[in-house]
Design goal:
2 domains; 2 helices; two-stranded parallel ribbon; 146 residues; 6% helix; elongated; mainly beta; Lyase, Ornithine Decarboxylase, Chain A, domain 1; 6-stranded antiparallel sheet; single chain; 35% strand
């Protein structure tokens, strides 16, 4: 018997008769699974600040076309005091806590709230380790909805 879902990977295999566990999101993770400390976020979207229209606000170039919002807004990785306020198709609006400044050209990473719909927006995964591209993998079934 086969079972799925990332959130049950650790108990599903203990159920008599289960011979396969098909957790999927664990591979890239998403914000809803942040409580699962056995895995780390690896599916991220790099975005670049393009505007700082007023204090406390920055606009970056990754919107809903780049990151799914099906389960909520993405989170900003490793930048305390910077949160996603809203998104439109082409841009993300960032809220900056008092004292936080970003400038055009600054890059940051977004952690999607839902990976399935985020992955389907891209043609390939770019594998990065220690700031260097290590691998590029095509997403073979991208856009295959027929």
């Amino acid at each position: 018997m086969s079972t799925g879902e990332t959130w049950s990977y650790d108990v599903a295999g203990e159920i008599p008769g289960v011979t396969e566990v098909q957790g999927g999101s664990y591979l890239v993770m998403e914000t809803g699974y942040g409580y699962m400390t056995d895995f780390h976020y690896s599916g991220k979207v790099l975005t670049t600040v393009i505007s700082t229209p007023r204090p406390g606000v920055a606009v970056a170039d990754a919107g809903q076309k780049a990151v799914s919002t099906l389960r909520g807004l993405p989170e900003v990785e490793d930048l305390p005091g910077v949160t996603v306020e809203s998104m439109d198709p082409d841009h993300v609006i960032l809220h900056l806590d008092s004292g936080i400044q970003l400038t055009p050209g600054d890059q940051l990473t977004l952690i999607p709230s839902q990976q399935d719909a985020t992955v389907s927006r891209w043609d390939r995964f770019i594998g990065v380790r220690d700031g260097k591209v290590e691998a590029v993998w095509d997403i073979q079934a991208r856009g295959c909805h027929n």
